Amino acid sequence: MNRPGRTLCGMTTTDQGPDRPATGRPGPAQSGTDRRDIAIAATGLRKAYGDRTVLDGIDLQVPAGTVFALLGPNGAGKTTVVSILSTLIRPDAGQLRVAGHDLAADPQAVRAAIGVTGQFSAVDGLITGEENMLLMADLNHLPKKEGRRVAAGLLERFGLTEAARKPAATYSGGMKRRLDIAMTLVGGPRIIFLDEPTTGLDPRSRHTMWQIVRDLVADGVTVFLTTQYLEEADQLADRIAVLDGGRLVAQGSAGELKRLVPGGHVRLRFTDPVAYERAAAALRETTRDDETFTLHIPSDGSQRELRAVLDWLDAADVVADELSVHTPDLDDVFFALTGNPATPRTAAEETLR
Ligand SMILES: Nc1ncnc2c1ncn2[C@@H]1O[C@H](COP(=O)(O)OP(=O)(O)OP(=O)(O)O)[C@@H](O)[C@H]1O
Protein backbone atom coordinates (compact mmCIF):
# COMPACT_ATOMS: atom_id res chain seq x y z
CA MET A 1 0.00 0.00 0.00
CA ASN A 2 2.29 2.70 -1.07
CA ARG A 3 0.47 5.92 -0.65
CA PRO A 4 0.01 7.88 -3.81
CA GLY A 5 2.50 10.71 -3.70
CA ARG A 6 1.79 14.39 -3.35
CA THR A 7 2.53 16.32 -6.48
CA LEU A 8 4.53 19.50 -6.59
CA CYS A 9 5.12 20.89 -10.10
CA GLY A 10 5.31 17.39 -11.49
CA MET A 11 7.02 16.08 -8.36
CA THR A 12 5.52 13.38 -6.26
CA THR A 13 6.58 12.52 -2.80
CA THR A 14 5.77 9.66 -0.55
CA ASP A 15 7.46 11.44 2.31
CA GLN A 16 5.52 10.78 5.45
CA GLY A 17 6.77 13.91 7.10
CA PRO A 18 7.91 14.14 10.67
CA ASP A 19 6.56 11.71 13.20
CA ARG A 20 3.00 12.42 14.04
CA PRO A 21 2.27 13.00 17.65
CA ALA A 22 1.11 9.89 19.40
CA THR A 23 -2.51 9.10 18.67
CA GLY A 24 -3.21 8.06 22.18
CA ARG A 25 -2.95 9.88 25.39
CA PRO A 26 -2.58 8.41 28.79
CA GLY A 27 -6.01 7.51 30.01
CA PRO A 28 -7.28 8.53 33.36
CA ALA A 29 -5.90 6.52 36.26
CA GLN A 30 -7.72 3.23 35.99
CA SER A 31 -8.39 0.79 38.70
CA GLY A 32 -7.11 -2.59 37.63
CA THR A 33 -4.07 -1.39 35.64
CA ASP A 34 -0.71 -1.80 37.27
CA ARG A 35 1.34 0.99 38.80
CA ARG A 36 3.07 1.94 35.58
CA ASP A 37 -0.24 1.97 33.70
CA ILE A 38 0.77 -0.89 31.46
CA ALA A 39 -2.49 -2.27 30.10
CA ILE A 40 -1.06 -5.37 28.44
CA ALA A 41 2.27 -7.05 29.11
CA ALA A 42 3.63 -10.32 27.75
CA THR A 43 6.98 -11.89 28.50
CA GLY A 44 8.24 -15.06 26.83
CA LEU A 45 4.89 -15.91 25.25
CA ARG A 46 5.05 -19.25 23.47
CA LYS A 47 2.51 -21.34 21.63
CA ALA A 48 2.85 -24.39 19.41
CA TYR A 49 0.27 -26.47 17.61
CA GLY A 50 1.71 -29.97 17.51
CA ASP A 51 5.28 -29.58 16.28
CA ARG A 52 4.52 -26.23 14.64
CA THR A 53 5.77 -23.37 16.81
CA VAL A 54 3.55 -20.38 16.14
CA LEU A 55 4.80 -17.99 18.84
CA ASP A 56 8.40 -18.42 19.81
CA GLY A 57 8.93 -16.11 22.78
CA ILE A 58 7.02 -12.84 22.38
CA ASP A 59 7.68 -9.86 24.67
CA LEU A 60 5.47 -6.81 24.44
CA GLN A 61 4.08 -4.00 26.55
CA VAL A 62 1.14 -1.75 25.79
CA PRO A 63 0.75 1.42 27.88
CA ALA A 64 -2.83 2.22 28.89
CA GLY A 65 -4.69 4.61 26.61
CA THR A 66 -2.58 3.88 23.53
CA VAL A 67 -3.00 1.96 20.28
CA PHE A 68 -0.72 -1.01 19.70
CA ALA A 69 -0.69 -2.59 16.25
CA LEU A 70 0.51 -6.12 15.71
CA LEU A 71 1.47 -6.40 12.10
CA GLY A 72 2.20 -9.58 10.22
CA PRO A 73 1.48 -11.54 7.07
CA ASN A 74 -1.18 -14.25 6.85
CA GLY A 75 -0.53 -17.05 9.28
CA ALA A 76 2.07 -15.12 11.29
CA GLY A 77 0.21 -15.78 14.53
CA LYS A 78 -1.61 -12.47 15.10
CA THR A 79 -4.96 -14.05 15.89
CA THR A 80 -3.20 -16.52 18.17
CA VAL A 81 -1.72 -13.63 20.19
CA VAL A 82 -5.13 -11.97 20.47
CA SER A 83 -6.82 -15.24 21.41
CA ILE A 84 -4.26 -15.85 24.15
CA LEU A 85 -4.32 -12.31 25.56
CA SER A 86 -8.11 -12.35 25.59
CA THR A 87 -8.14 -15.72 27.45
CA LEU A 88 -9.73 -17.67 24.59
CA ILE A 89 -6.82 -20.08 24.28
CA ARG A 90 -4.02 -21.04 26.66
CA PRO A 91 -0.38 -20.30 25.97
CA ASP A 92 2.29 -22.99 26.40
CA ALA A 93 4.51 -20.56 28.30
CA GLY A 94 4.86 -16.92 29.19
CA GLN A 95 3.96 -14.38 31.81
CA LEU A 96 0.96 -12.36 30.80
CA ARG A 97 -0.74 -9.46 32.50
CA VAL A 98 -3.82 -7.73 31.15
CA ALA A 99 -5.53 -4.83 32.94
CA GLY A 100 -3.28 -5.48 35.92
CA HIS A 101 -4.36 -9.09 36.32
CA ASP A 102 -2.27 -12.19 35.86
CA LEU A 103 -3.86 -14.04 32.98
CA ALA A 104 -3.15 -17.52 34.30
CA ALA A 105 -4.18 -16.77 37.87
CA ASP A 106 -7.25 -14.64 37.24
CA PRO A 107 -8.66 -15.03 33.72
CA GLN A 108 -12.13 -13.99 34.90
CA ALA A 109 -10.86 -10.58 36.00
CA VAL A 110 -9.17 -10.16 32.63
CA ARG A 111 -12.37 -11.10 30.83
CA ALA A 112 -14.31 -8.54 32.83
CA ALA A 113 -11.92 -5.76 31.79
CA ILE A 114 -11.63 -6.41 28.06
CA GLY A 115 -13.67 -6.47 24.88
CA VAL A 116 -12.78 -8.50 21.82
CA THR A 117 -13.90 -8.04 18.24
CA GLY A 118 -12.66 -11.00 16.26
CA GLN A 119 -12.32 -11.60 12.56
CA PHE A 120 -15.55 -13.52 12.63
CA SER A 121 -18.47 -11.37 13.52
CA ALA A 122 -20.44 -11.90 16.71
CA VAL A 123 -23.44 -10.26 15.04
CA ASP A 124 -26.56 -12.42 14.69
CA GLY A 125 -27.98 -11.55 11.27
CA LEU A 126 -31.45 -12.89 12.01
CA ILE A 127 -32.23 -10.29 14.66
CA THR A 128 -32.05 -6.51 14.46
CA GLY A 129 -29.05 -4.39 15.38
CA GLU A 130 -30.89 -3.20 18.46
CA GLU A 131 -31.72 -6.76 19.52
CA ASN A 132 -28.07 -7.73 19.11
CA MET A 133 -27.12 -4.84 21.38
CA LEU A 134 -29.76 -5.72 23.99
CA LEU A 135 -28.57 -9.32 23.94
CA MET A 136 -25.06 -8.10 24.78
CA ALA A 137 -26.48 -5.89 27.52
CA ASP A 138 -28.17 -9.00 29.01
CA LEU A 139 -24.94 -10.98 28.74
CA ASN A 140 -23.22 -8.15 30.60
CA HIS A 141 -25.93 -8.33 33.29
CA LEU A 142 -27.02 -4.74 32.76
CA PRO A 143 -30.45 -3.92 34.23
CA LYS A 144 -33.06 -3.69 31.43
CA LYS A 145 -33.41 0.11 31.52
CA GLU A 146 -29.65 0.66 31.67
CA GLY A 147 -29.17 -1.85 28.84
CA ARG A 148 -31.61 0.04 26.62
CA ARG A 149 -29.88 3.33 27.43
CA VAL A 150 -26.40 1.99 26.68
CA ALA A 151 -27.58 0.25 23.49
CA ALA A 152 -29.31 3.38 22.18
CA GLY A 153 -26.26 5.52 22.98
CA LEU A 154 -23.85 3.21 21.19
CA LEU A 155 -26.14 2.75 18.18
CA GLU A 156 -26.30 6.53 17.91
CA ARG A 157 -22.54 6.91 18.31
CA PHE A 158 -21.86 4.39 15.56
CA GLY A 159 -24.40 5.84 13.12
CA LEU A 160 -26.74 2.86 13.37
CA THR A 161 -29.86 4.42 14.90
CA GLU A 162 -31.73 4.50 11.61
CA ALA A 163 -30.94 0.87 10.85
CA ALA A 164 -31.40 -0.30 14.45
CA ARG A 165 -34.78 -1.95 13.82
CA LYS A 166 -33.68 -3.77 10.66
CA PRO A 167 -32.31 -7.33 10.64
CA ALA A 168 -28.52 -7.18 10.88
CA ALA A 169 -28.27 -9.49 7.85
CA THR A 170 -29.37 -6.52 5.72
CA TYR A 171 -26.44 -4.35 6.93
CA SER A 172 -23.43 -3.54 4.76
CA GLY A 173 -20.03 -4.95 5.74
CA GLY A 174 -19.05 -1.64 7.35
CA MET A 175 -22.30 -1.42 9.32
CA LYS A 176 -21.91 -4.99 10.58
CA ARG A 177 -18.36 -4.24 11.67
CA ARG A 178 -19.53 -1.09 13.47
CA LEU A 179 -22.31 -3.05 15.16
CA ASP A 180 -19.77 -5.69 16.17
CA ILE A 181 -17.58 -3.07 17.88
CA ALA A 182 -20.62 -1.38 19.45
CA MET A 183 -21.58 -4.77 20.92
CA THR A 184 -18.04 -5.15 22.27
CA LEU A 185 -18.37 -1.79 24.02
CA VAL A 186 -21.64 -2.55 25.82
CA GLY A 187 -19.78 -3.70 28.92
CA GLY A 188 -17.58 -0.56 28.95
CA PRO A 189 -14.22 -2.35 28.53
CA ARG A 190 -11.05 -0.30 29.16
CA ILE A 191 -9.03 -2.53 26.84
CA ILE A 192 -10.24 -3.74 23.49
CA PHE A 193 -8.74 -6.21 21.05
CA LEU A 194 -9.59 -5.70 17.39
CA ASP A 195 -8.49 -8.54 15.16
CA GLU A 196 -8.11 -7.17 11.61
CA PRO A 197 -10.89 -4.62 12.10
CA THR A 198 -10.91 -3.30 8.55
CA THR A 199 -10.20 -6.37 6.43
CA GLY A 200 -12.74 -6.43 3.62
CA LEU A 201 -14.03 -2.91 4.18
CA ASP A 202 -14.13 -0.27 1.48
CA PRO A 203 -11.97 2.86 1.95
CA ARG A 204 -14.80 4.95 3.40
CA SER A 205 -15.76 2.31 5.97
CA ARG A 206 -12.07 1.84 6.75
CA HIS A 207 -11.74 5.54 7.53
CA THR A 208 -14.87 5.43 9.68
CA MET A 209 -13.36 2.55 11.61
CA TRP A 210 -10.11 4.46 12.10
CA GLN A 211 -12.09 7.37 13.54
CA ILE A 212 -13.87 4.98 15.89
CA VAL A 213 -10.50 3.74 17.13
CA ARG A 214 -9.24 7.31 17.60
CA ASP A 215 -12.38 8.22 19.55
CA LEU A 216 -11.98 5.18 21.78
CA VAL A 217 -8.40 6.14 22.56
CA ALA A 218 -9.44 9.73 23.21
CA ASP A 219 -11.75 8.26 25.88
CA GLY A 220 -8.75 6.55 27.48
CA VAL A 221 -9.43 3.06 26.10
CA THR A 222 -6.41 0.91 25.20
CA VAL A 223 -6.65 -0.62 21.74
CA PHE A 224 -4.69 -3.70 20.67
CA LEU A 225 -5.25 -4.28 16.98
CA THR A 226 -3.91 -6.68 14.43
CA THR A 227 -3.65 -5.76 10.81
CA GLN A 228 -2.05 -6.73 7.56
CA TYR A 229 -2.28 -3.12 6.41
CA LEU A 230 0.78 -1.05 7.01
CA GLU A 231 -1.12 2.12 6.35
CA GLU A 232 -3.56 1.24 9.11
CA ALA A 233 -0.76 0.75 11.60
CA ASP A 234 0.85 3.96 10.41
CA GLN A 235 -2.40 5.90 10.80
CA LEU A 236 -3.45 4.60 14.17
CA ALA A 237 -0.73 3.06 16.23
CA ASP A 238 1.48 4.63 18.86
CA ARG A 239 3.57 1.46 18.72
CA ILE A 240 3.84 -1.17 16.05
CA ALA A 241 5.27 -4.66 16.40
CA VAL A 242 6.08 -6.77 13.37
CA LEU A 243 5.44 -10.49 13.85
CA ASP A 244 7.22 -12.92 11.57
CA GLY A 245 8.35 -16.50 11.97
CA GLY A 246 6.96 -16.67 15.50
CA ARG A 247 8.99 -13.71 16.74
CA LEU A 248 8.62 -9.97 16.94
CA VAL A 249 11.21 -8.85 14.45
CA ALA A 250 10.81 -5.14 15.27
CA GLN A 251 8.90 -2.84 17.61
CA GLY A 252 8.61 0.92 17.70
CA SER A 253 6.67 3.93 16.50
CA ALA A 254 6.02 4.18 12.77
CA GLY A 255 8.81 6.78 12.57
CA GLU A 256 11.28 4.57 14.45
CA LEU A 257 10.53 1.62 12.21
CA LYS A 258 10.92 3.68 9.06
CA ARG A 259 14.34 4.80 10.22
CA LEU A 260 15.42 1.15 10.27
CA VAL A 261 15.61 1.02 6.51
CA PRO A 262 17.67 3.09 4.13
CA GLY A 263 16.49 3.64 0.59
CA GLY A 264 15.22 7.21 0.34
CA HIS A 265 15.80 8.71 -3.05
CA VAL A 266 14.88 11.47 -5.45
CA ARG A 267 13.73 10.21 -8.82
CA LEU A 268 14.08 12.32 -11.95
CA ARG A 269 12.39 11.26 -15.17
CA PHE A 270 13.13 12.75 -18.57
CA THR A 271 11.56 12.42 -21.99
CA ASP A 272 14.43 14.16 -23.78
CA PRO A 273 17.47 11.83 -23.99
CA VAL A 274 19.83 14.81 -24.28
CA ALA A 275 18.50 16.39 -21.07
CA TYR A 276 18.74 12.96 -19.42
CA GLU A 277 22.42 12.62 -20.32
CA ARG A 278 23.20 16.18 -19.23
CA ALA A 279 21.51 15.61 -15.87
CA ALA A 280 23.30 12.29 -15.40
CA ALA A 281 26.61 14.03 -16.04
CA ALA A 282 25.79 16.90 -13.67
CA LEU A 283 24.58 14.83 -10.74
CA ARG A 284 26.80 12.62 -8.64
CA GLU A 285 25.94 9.22 -7.18
CA THR A 286 23.00 8.60 -9.46
CA THR A 287 21.65 5.24 -10.52
CA ARG A 288 20.56 5.27 -14.15
CA ASP A 289 17.71 3.54 -15.88
CA ASP A 290 18.47 4.12 -19.54
CA GLU A 291 15.25 2.49 -20.73
CA THR A 292 12.95 4.92 -18.92
CA PHE A 293 15.41 7.86 -18.84
CA THR A 294 15.16 7.90 -15.08
CA LEU A 295 17.79 8.86 -12.51
CA HIS A 296 17.70 7.88 -8.83
CA ILE A 297 19.66 10.07 -6.43
CA PRO A 298 20.11 8.83 -2.85
CA SER A 299 18.44 11.38 -0.55
CA ASP A 300 16.84 11.66 2.86
CA GLY A 301 14.07 13.66 1.20
CA SER A 302 14.88 16.77 3.22
CA GLN A 303 14.25 20.24 1.85
CA ARG A 304 18.00 20.92 1.88
CA GLU A 305 18.87 17.87 -0.23
CA LEU A 306 15.99 18.53 -2.58
CA ARG A 307 17.18 22.11 -3.08
CA ALA A 308 20.70 20.85 -3.85
CA VAL A 309 19.34 18.57 -6.59
CA LEU A 310 17.31 21.44 -8.07
CA ASP A 311 20.38 23.71 -7.94
CA TRP A 312 22.44 21.10 -9.81
CA LEU A 313 19.74 20.82 -12.45
CA ASP A 314 19.55 24.62 -12.79
CA ALA A 315 23.31 24.86 -13.07
CA ALA A 316 23.29 22.22 -15.82
CA ASP A 317 20.34 24.02 -17.44
CA VAL A 318 18.18 20.90 -17.63
CA VAL A 319 14.54 20.47 -16.74
CA ALA A 320 13.22 17.13 -15.55
CA ASP A 321 9.77 16.11 -16.72
CA GLU A 322 8.98 14.58 -13.38
CA LEU A 323 10.63 14.77 -9.99
CA SER A 324 9.52 12.60 -7.12
CA VAL A 325 10.81 12.05 -3.61
CA HIS A 326 10.60 8.64 -2.03
CA THR A 327 11.34 8.19 1.65
CA PRO A 328 11.12 4.70 3.12
CA ASP A 329 7.65 3.82 4.30
CA LEU A 330 6.35 0.91 6.33
CA ASP A 331 6.14 -1.20 3.18
CA ASP A 332 9.90 -0.93 2.85
CA VAL A 333 10.31 -1.73 6.54
CA PHE A 334 8.09 -4.76 6.28
CA PHE A 335 9.92 -6.03 3.23
CA ALA A 336 13.32 -5.42 4.80
CA LEU A 337 12.33 -7.19 8.02
CA THR A 338 10.30 -10.11 6.78
CA GLY A 339 11.35 -10.56 3.16
CA ASN A 340 7.64 -10.65 2.38
CA PRO A 341 5.75 -8.16 0.32
CA ALA A 342 3.78 -5.93 2.66
CA THR A 343 0.49 -7.68 2.20
CA PRO A 344 -0.77 -10.37 -0.12
CA ARG A 345 -3.58 -8.09 -1.21
CA THR A 346 -3.77 -4.35 -1.26
CA ALA A 347 -6.61 -2.71 0.60
CA ALA A 348 -8.16 -1.74 -2.73
CA GLU A 349 -8.00 -5.31 -4.04
CA GLU A 350 -9.46 -6.55 -0.80
CA THR A 351 -12.58 -4.45 -1.25
CA LEU A 352 -13.08 -5.87 -4.74
CA ARG A 353 -13.21 -9.48 -3.62
N1 LIG B 1 -6.20 -24.57 16.35
C1 LIG B 1 -5.14 -24.65 15.56
N2 LIG B 1 -4.55 -25.83 15.29
C2 LIG B 1 -3.46 -25.92 14.50
N3 LIG B 1 -2.86 -24.86 13.90
C3 LIG B 1 -3.39 -23.65 14.13
C4 LIG B 1 -4.56 -23.48 14.96
N4 LIG B 1 -4.85 -22.17 15.00
C5 LIG B 1 -3.92 -21.54 14.23
N5 LIG B 1 -3.06 -22.43 13.71
C6 LIG B 1 -1.90 -22.13 12.86
O1 LIG B 1 -1.12 -21.17 13.51
C7 LIG B 1 -0.58 -20.25 12.58
C8 LIG B 1 -0.95 -18.83 13.00
O2 LIG B 1 -2.34 -18.65 12.83
P1 LIG B 1 -3.05 -17.26 13.15
O3 LIG B 1 -4.49 -17.41 12.77
O4 LIG B 1 -2.73 -16.85 14.53
O5 LIG B 1 -2.31 -16.29 12.14
P2 LIG B 1 -2.69 -14.82 11.69
O6 LIG B 1 -1.42 -14.04 11.69
O7 LIG B 1 -3.80 -14.30 12.51
O8 LIG B 1 -3.16 -15.05 10.20
P3 LIG B 1 -4.30 -14.28 9.34
O9 LIG B 1 -3.74 -12.95 9.00
O10 LIG B 1 -4.43 -15.17 8.14
O11 LIG B 1 -5.54 -14.23 10.17
C9 LIG B 1 -1.13 -20.64 11.22
O12 LIG B 1 -0.15 -21.40 10.57
C10 LIG B 1 -2.33 -21.49 11.55
O13 LIG B 1 -2.53 -22.43 10.56
Automatic annotation (TrEMBL):
InterPro entries per UniProt: AAA+_ATPase (IPR003593), ABC_transporter-like_ATP-bd (IPR003439), ABC_transporter-like_CS (IPR017871), ABC_transporter_ATP-binding (IPR050763), DrrA (IPR005894), P-loop_NTPase (IPR027417)
Any one GO biological process: daunorubicin transport
One Pfam family hit: ABC_tran
Membrane disposition: Peripheral membrane protein
Main location: membrane
Protein's recorded name: ABC-type xenobiotic transporter
GO cellular component assignments: plasma membrane
Lineage of producing organism: Bacteria, Bacillati, Actinomycetota, Actinomycetes, Kitasatosporales
Keyword vocabulary terms for this entry: Antibiotic resistance, ATP-binding, Cell membrane, Membrane, Nucleotide-binding, Translocase, Transport
GO MF term list: ABC-type xenobiotic transporter activity; ATP binding; ATP hydrolysis activity
The ABC transporter domain, residue ranges: 40-270
Family to which this protein belongs: Belongs to the ABC transporter superfamily. Drug exporter-1 (DrugE1) (TC 3.A.1.105) family.
Localization per record: Cell membrane
Provenance organism: Streptomyces fumanus
Enzyme class: translocase
EC number: 7.6.2.2
Segments for region (Disordered): 1-34
